[in-house]
Please model this.
Amino acid sequence: MIDRLALDIAHLCAGGLVLVSFMLLYQDRLTGLINTFALHAIVVSFSVAWQAYIQHAPQLYITAGIALGVKAIVIPLALHRIIVRLGIHRSIEPVVSIGQTMLAGIGLVALAVMVMLPVTAQAGTLAREDLAFALSVILLGLLMMISRRNAVSQVIGFMSIENGLILAATGAKGMPLVVEISVAFSILIALIVIGVFLFRIRERFETVDIHLLHEHRGEQP
Amino acid sequence: MAIALALGVQLLQLALVLVLAPLLTGLVRKLKAHLVGRQGPPLLQPYRDLARLLRKEVVLAESASWLFRAAPYLIFATTWVAAALVPTFATGLVFGYAADVIAIVALLGAARFMLALAGLDVGTSFGGIGSSREMMIASLAEPAMLMVVFTLSLLAGSTQLSSIAAALQSPEVGLRVSLALALVALIMVALAENARIPVDNPATHLELTMVHEAMILEYSGRHLALIETASYLKLLLYVSLIACVFFPWGLASAAQGGGAYLSAAVVYIAKLGAAGFALAVFETAIAKMRVFRVSDFLGAALMLGLLAALLLFVTQAT
Amino acid sequence: MLAALLGCVALLLVASVGAIALADRRLATTAIYGVALTASVAGLLLALAALLAPAPVPATLALPIGLPWLGAHFRLDALSAFFLVVANLGGAAASLYGLGYGRHEEAPARVLPFFPAFLAAMNLVLVADDAFSFLFSWEFMSLTSWALVMAHHRRSGNAAAGYLYLLMASFGTLALILAFGLLAGWSGAYDFAAIRTASPSALMGAAVLALALAGAGSKAGVVPLHVWLPLAHPAAPSHVSALMSGVMTKVAVYGFVRITFDLVGAPLWWWGALVALTGGITAVMGVLHALMEHDLKRLLAYHTVENIGIIFIGLGLALAFSANEMPAAAALALTAALFHVFNHSVFKSLLFFGAGAVLTATGERDMERLGGLIHRMPRTAFLFLVGSAAISALPPFNGFVSEWLTFQAILLSPALPQWLLKFLVPAIGALLALSAALAAACFVKAFGVTFLGRARSQVAREARETDRCSLGAMFTLAALCLVAGVLPAWFIDALAPVAQALTGSHLPERHGLDWLTIVPIAQSRSSYNGLLLFVLIAFAAALAAAAIHRFASGRLRRAPAWDCGFPDPSPATQYTAGSFSQPIRRVFGTVVFRAREEVEMPAPGATQSARLHVQLRDVLWDTLYVPAARAVALAADHLNAVQFLTIRAYLTLVFGALVALLAVLAIWQ
Model:
């Protein structure tokens, strides 16, 4: 059976992913947000690798590798370069203040826990906790998408939702085709990112060029 | 005889924290200087500063009242009592059962109350700036601290520090994400309460960046010495608290006797050194926040504390 | 004992009638307050005797006054005895204060007749044992306090405050009438003995809880029914404000406790959740409003709202624990709430007395026009400081002990089985911690701006210390704050019979030297020793003072303030109350009050001054009360048409009503 230390580390990784999702909500600068998302992807890849180790399922190592390679390295680098090239406005305006967003985040975590734990009463401990945390990460990613006015942050929110799904999928032991599904999701994500930037943001952000904004900088009430 | 010995050990702890507190601050300043390429003041400079202040004459503003003169003694007394109650090298000392974490937080709150009043006493604008900002920071830092206390006492089943330290030393606790969240939240609160970067700059002389320094602007001589010692003690208290709760290895229990106490004291001094190094690195690496970003920072600490408590319920139910 | 207590009440009523006769004579003030003081002290001693040596069966008495088939029933059990102690202590302190303060009263004929009647009414509510006497005494209490609020009715704002108070009091009584009607209808009789034995259904219980929360809660000051409190309490004379905030709100809490813990039967778990959540929101909203105020008495009134919230948190937790068959935890929560009832009445009365002293000395309630009073009124300042420290929950005073006990009750929440409670209680704990921290900030502002700094106006510069009776009353209350903080075990043991009666358990008893420590559940779990902390602090301060005296230089020199090298002689450069609360207003106020700050800057070169406008909206007032008032006005306008109908139309109405009633009767058969 799974021994105590392995359980604790898996639990720590899943909880850590929730913590990094909160860190994503806290950021107010674009570069910080992208770096935090890279951390998010690193945590999820470590969590998947650990699951591969304790479940003795070597194919999950591939999923971990894809998460690390694509989402922790390639996409953040690409986003950094695109932001500089297109001169996108670097600060993220939240719809409501950061404090209130985080308060809503806590409520969502409580809701996810309240829903998941009674429902999965028959499953093993590890799966139950992973599912509860994964639902929290998904809800927090959705919250991030709806509470930010910036398209980049919405894309990052979408990618963090996908990380939550990966956590849920690997936590439930024996789900088939995990590797194939994760590859497909990653390609989908990459295409979405490229598409969004090339076809939509260009028109929008040309007028929000950072240089034009200088004269309008000021404090918000 | 036994009770006299136990009382003696407790009084030894009382004296130990007072003696070590300026050394910790001296260490942090020295390391910060080295990290930016300067020589920095000598390690024992805070002791010399205090001795110098004690020799000097007190210059009292004309509009200051008896509260201004009495406040330093009360601030020092409450902070010293709070710092002496936190276990440093041994748990379960004579007054250990009075070392309730909520009481310690409240004692620090009393010290802060008196300090804020002293800032308003002379009737200058700088005192007002310091007091109002300090109370805003406190209004968020105290709840965050209490949430951390809540998480810890849920794990340990008690709010007594000795029991918490003993419970967290046992192997059943394991690695928990709630503990990690609580540690992060406690570090954030400690930075805010001790007027450290990123919340406040302890070495500033610009009024726009002052919080703690603005409240004590009018103090001089022996009063200032008492207040400075109180702030050194507060830093020592928070470091001891974090060490006692989250890194409790090396703490002696009351039954073990002299040899164990000595080795535990050495371990404690090593922990202080490590904490001082970590603080110096952190303060050098990060910049100070705008005042109104501090509320987001502490709000995040409060949320982390609440999240830690919620996640504990998750794991306790499974 | 019960008969003697009713005798004191009768004495107070006689004094009240006598005051009408004597009113304008010179000795009237001293005589009436003296009689009130004696009666209150007698009542206090009787109630203490009843609490500390409880009779095995509570004393009851039935008098043939009131409704002919019902009479008036009175009962003195542990709960009534405790609240009688609180009420009579407050009454005695207010009477003592009034002996000094009443001499400055400009219209004694409007205050003196109603003051003893107010005290009598509160005592009667606490011993009433049937629905009619309870409601009659409740209304009597509201009316006498209304008369006291309207004592200075020509001052601006007082008439509107009195009107709103009357409206909210009537609403509260209506809710209570409905609640008692439901209970009496179920059990078949109006007296409490019969109601106790009947056990209502779950739906009935929920309805009674909601009505009791609305009725008693509005008198206590629970959000959203608190809006009358900050207007009415400050409008009354200061000792009456102290009575209203410190005692009348507690009588309302008694009413709530009596109905939900005693009369309604076994509670359900979600009642506790509702009450505790209401308490948490009340606490935070009360203290945030207090932070925005710069009228000293209105600030204190909002703080009453906050402390009532804390009491209701404790009561809600007790209900939740009771519903889940956890009597020890329920006893802890209930003891915490009741101890806070006592503590709050003591320090709130003390603070209102201080505010009254300031008002008498300067004629000002606005903090922005005071300052530097610590030099002119040193004793009042010191006693106000003790009250501020007590209300901010700082050790070694009593406010800390009751908050500590409430936190210990919150820490027992993981044992609750319901998930919603498990998550709600830590959130309520966070709200409680937030309100405690904000309360400390608020009292730094209140004490600092009023008493410290430099005087901002001529009246502040010329203030004089108050008289000895007022100082005596304040000193007694301040000493009580310290004693209750340092020796809380005595008070908690006194509360044991109350907790036992209502929840079936009480806090562990302590014997011998252990008596100095209070222990909520078990020694190994948590303990608090107030005396030890007090001794340690005193020892440390004395040691520091001795060492400084021995080793440090003793020289001292007075000089102008340093002020970073920019000293300004004008006292306008120091912080005001509004500037002190600006950071907190920015952090919390933008959401809660829709706070907006606007600065009107003059053009460069123009010589007029810049202006800062701060706009705060009370969201509850705008969303609940204003639409309700508008709806009532609209309905009244439409119904006004009924006044101007022809005779034929009126006859049609009468005819229609008759036909409708006959039809109903027919269908009913």
